[in-house]
Amino acid sequence: MRDGSIVLTTAIVVLSVGSLTQRPAGAHDGTSWPSFRGPGASGVVEGAALPEEWDLDADVNVSWRTPIPGLGHSSPVVWGGRVFVTTAVRLGGESELSSLYGSPGYGADRSMQEEGEHSFRVFCLDRETGEVLWEREAHRGAPAIKRHVKSSHANPTPACDAERVVVFFASEGLHCYDHDGEFLWSRDLGRLDSGAPDLDDWKSYEWGYASSPVLHDDRVIIQCDVQEQSYLAAFDATDGSDVWRTDRDERPTWGTPTVHEMSASGRPQVIVNGYQHGGGYDLETGDPIWWFSGGGDSPVPTPVISHGLVFLTSAHGRGHPLTAFRVTAEGELRRDAASSEHVEWNLPRRGIYMQTPIVYGDLLYCCSDGGILSCYDARTGEEMYRQRLGLGRAGFSGSAVAGDGKLYFTSETGRVFVVKAGPEYELVAANELGETCLSTPAVADGLLLFRTRHHVVAVGR
User: Fold this and answer.
1) CATH level 2 (architecture), domain 39-459
2) pTM exceeding the 0.90 threshold for the entire prediction
3) How far is CA 379 from CA 125, 310, 320, 334, 335, in A?
């Protein structure tokens, strides 16, 4: 096992010009993981063997383990031989994190109080060795918005393509670099306040922003659902200029958009989760194509697309639906499959709160905060099994990934449950990461890349 060295730099880099191209063919060949949940937000990649077991202490099936300063729940992303990850470094000392399931403060409404100045950074690591190739400081200052005691100031996952990497620190800006760390452009999107809904004193409950950017060809898609003036926007990836912006009648949400190549209109669409307005928007214009309301009042999971269906779920407050919408949907929809031709099936009480579901083969897997894993027939919604992962003493915040006939579910304590894909539950192994982990792993070319409390850990080969 090799430790990557860290070279700290604190100067904000200045503008330079780089050549920019559209996303090339081969971006989804299994060697890259370009955004949150990988290609198409599926969470699935095939083409290489993935490990069942590993041991950090014995250096078994561990390629490298590189320390990353600060606190962040963003996932790593991968393009070719490079891994990109973001973090927020508190300059006045280590950031507090209340992350253990059932511990004091877990799930509390309260925000962290003033934490002082932070350095908002992006790291580039060598995929083979874990060596830090470069580090850049995108912003320095006190965070404009407080965070939940379980959250961080670096929640959004970067997005990358063959030429650029886009990192998003919410109120601290949207920033773009090339793969050598040269600064390309930034956008200040103002104060983005995501916090508790339906409270008279909501302005005192700041939970932190989490929606990640999506790069699709020459556009950067951002979902800004906040306390006031929510919107969905597309920016030109070459210079950060506006392409379109569509206002949304929406309260704070924390999900990441998914781009689907085709819609009922024959054009690509951006699909978003939501409480007052979930659904699909035309990628070219930002115009709504289909929409629905209701469900959990603080949506977090990202839309998942498979078998001609869009799987959407939420589970905060009174609503807990798990719904399969048809990708050909148009207009205003209701979740009731019996009354809508655009709803394939709906389970009103099977929704999950934090994690994004995953479709692997013909099956849909959903893991709850408390580690209850449910498996369904993706096409019909028929339940295959429900099984608890572990002893019920650990929470699950990061979303699952899959490949090589296996699914990986990571608990907040850093225990990773490896489950065999199929209609019957079979636990293959349970492995330790040695630290808390609230992020979703990346998978590329036979490596599982976990972002833990203090490290990026490469498992496999």
Assistant:
1) 7 Propeller (2.130)
2) yes
3) 40, 11, 20, 19, 16
